[in-house]
Amino acid sequence: MKSNLTFVSDISKKEFPLADKVSAKKIRNPILALIENDFPDFDKTKFLAIEELNMYREKYISNYLLVEIGELSNLEAKVIDSLSEDKLLVSGVEDELGARTVGQKVADQVAGFGGSWKFIILFGVFIMLWILANIYILLNKGFDPYPFILLNLILSCLAALQAPVIMMSQNRQEEKDRERAKKDYMINLKSELEIRMLHEKLDHLIMHQQEELIEIQKVQIEMMNDILSRIK
């Protein structure tokens, strides 16, 4: 003898708690069409569990993405997985952004220092001391007399080395921006899909409450009829 607190799903023929019971009448037509496609005998007189309904909701969302976006990319697949597993997207993306190699760290530090006023001032002081030392202290007979060929060589080498390092840092920044853009897209897509699922759940709750109110009204009408019949 089966317990009164359970029911048997008309889809899987498995037993579920009675609280998870959902009538086919409460299911939106697009989702009901998916269920009927897999189970032709399923109609509005049948019942299924909320767990099974959620599975078809996810299937409906996947089909929607296929129609609107085309072939599902890794990003959309990750979003659907996060919906089914109820996990966050932000933490995983932030971990990917935080992973840097030693070369990338050095490039970021060099680019940060080379693009600061501190570097400009220090390098300007260095050039002035170099020129003054060769012209006035060493009387233009020092290690680098005018027109300062050694200084020009040093400046050329510094520019040749600094430019690719700064480009490495810029590439790193562009990579971070692309990852952030992907993260924003995934979060926005997940929010949209969760809102759709919330609408489905709210519709289910509203219809369930309406049925309960109708049943309560029927009971009240029966009680009123009993009272009237007794008065008569």
From TrEMBL:
<keyword id="KW-0812">Transmembrane</keyword>
<feature type="transmembrane region" description="Helical">
    <location>
        <begin position="119"/>
        <end position="139"/>
    </location>
</feature>
<dbReference type="Pfam" id="PF06210">
    <property type="entry name" value="DUF1003"/>
</dbReference>
<keyword id="KW-0472">Membrane</keyword>
<feature type="transmembrane region" description="Helical">
    <location>
        <begin position="145"/>
        <end position="168"/>
    </location>
</feature>
<keyword id="KW-1133">Transmembrane helix</keyword>
<dbReference type="InterPro" id="IPR010406">
    <property type="entry name" value="DUF1003"/>
</dbReference>
<protein>
    <recommendedName>
        <fullName>Cyclic nucleotide-binding protein</fullName>
    </recommendedName>
</protein>
